[in-house]
Specification:
This protein is α/β, with parallel strands linked by helices. Helix content is about 15%, strand content about 25%. The strands form four sheets. It has a nine-stranded mixed β-sheet, covered by helices on one side. A three-stranded mixed β-sheet has the order 1-3-4, with no helix packed on it. Strands 8-16 form a two-stranded antiparallel ribbon. A hairpin with a 2-residue loop joins strand 5 and strand 6. Helix 3 packs across helix 4. The radius of gyration is 19 Å and the shape is globular. The relative contact order is 0.18. It binds zinc ion. Zinc ion binds next to strand 5 and helix 4.
């Protein structure tokens, strides 16, 4: 399976690749040929399996817009029907997974790539001696960013568990302000040229379904708790990023309220997860950072793993900061 950060740079390789596990025979019609009827996999009702379809789908063959697609890693998203593309991330207790849906209406193509699965994408944070986070300059980027010098305005949805907003706000600020323990002042300087602003509570939750799938966007960036009762049991958080070209237009972030305990200060109850740490990591996705894989990078905030009672993700490493500067420049 192709890694999607690399896949974005190698679209020709992607075009040739196929995510099919079964030979379907019906892939794409030759150019100019009228699509007499959609391929069999397209006619299935409900959620479509990415396994059953080619990685690149011609809209003329099967118009996926508005339909839900489930990746082989269990991650699901509704294909945007408003011209946007989508990146979905889920952070799991032992790894992470991603699903990217690129909608190119001009070319009439939709490209689907997935990353990670039930087998953890990253090794456990302690399995091999990782590099010092203050020296490890590794980062990976997503296809889109907010405008340089812009402000990400976000609303908070407390959800039923009433997760404390202060802890969510800390996580958001940690990433934007490049919070670290690598410097005496507690942050990398200069900070990246991107801001954030809390814009009030939202009665509606993030656009993430009960199955931890990215739903239909509502043009509001909503972060907060959500009881994702249909999600796989190891899912901690889900973040969805909608973009047009290279410009991010909306992000939503959901912390799992169902079956997960959260920690936001004082002594950590064993088995609880740090709200601040997880939100810091998810905010990295919001700003356009992707995961860094491999045990040697496990100390970075964008490593795809978090342990219970681990607040380490709340402080950025060199690569997390370098990534932000590469995307936004210095403030
Ligand atoms: Zn992640």
């Amino acid at each position: 399976m192709h890694g999607f950060s690399r896949a974005a740079r190698a679209t020709s390789a992607l075009a040739a690749a196929c995510a099919c596990t079964a030979a379907t025979g019906a892939i794409t019609a030759p150019p100019g040929a009228a699509a007499a009827r959609p391929p069999a996999w397209c006619e299935t009702g409900g959620t479509l399996s990415a396994r059953a379809m080619p990685q690149k789908v011609r809209i003329a063959d099967c118009d996926l817009r508005g339909r839900a697609i489930r990746g082989p890693n269990g991650l699901t998203a509704v294909v945007p029907a408003d011209g946007t593309s989508l990146v979905a991330h889920s952070l799991r207790t032992r790894g992470a997974s991603g699903l990217r849906i690129l909608v190119d209406e001009q070319a009439g193509e939709i490209t689907i790539t997935t990353r990670g699965g039930r087998v953890p994408e990253g090794r456990p944070r302690t399995s091999r001696a990782p590099q010092d986070a203050c020296k490890d300059g590794t980062y990976e980027s997503e296809p889109s960013t907010w405008p340089k010098g812009g402000t990400v305005r976000w609303r908070y949805h407390a959800g039923r568990a009433r997760l404390p907003r202060t802890a969510v706000a800390k996580g958001v600020a940690n990433m934007v302000n490049a919070n670290t323990d690598c410097t005496d002042e507690g942050r990398f300087t200069p900070p990246p040229d991107i801001g954030e602003r809390y814009s009030g509570e939202s009665a509606t939750g993030p656009n993430v379904t009960r199955d931890a799938a990215c739903g239909t966007r509502d043009r509001v960036n909503t972060f907060g708790g959500k009881a994702m009762t249909g999600a796989e049991s190891d899912v901690l958080a889900a973040t969805c990023i909608w973009f047009v070209g290279k410009r991010t237009v909306e992000t939503d972030m959901a912390l799992q309220e169902h079956g997960k305990r959260w920690w936001s200060g004082g002594l950590c109850i064993p088995g609880s997860y740090s709200i601040e740490a997880v939100v810091t990591h998810e905010m990295g996705h919001v700003l356009g950072l992707a995961h860094v894989e491999g045990a040697e990078h496990a100390n970075l905030t964008m490593a795809p793993a978090v342990a219970a009672c681990d607040n380490g993700l709340a402080t950025l490493g060199k690569g997390d900061y370098d990534g932000l500067i590469s995307l936004y420049g210095p403030r």
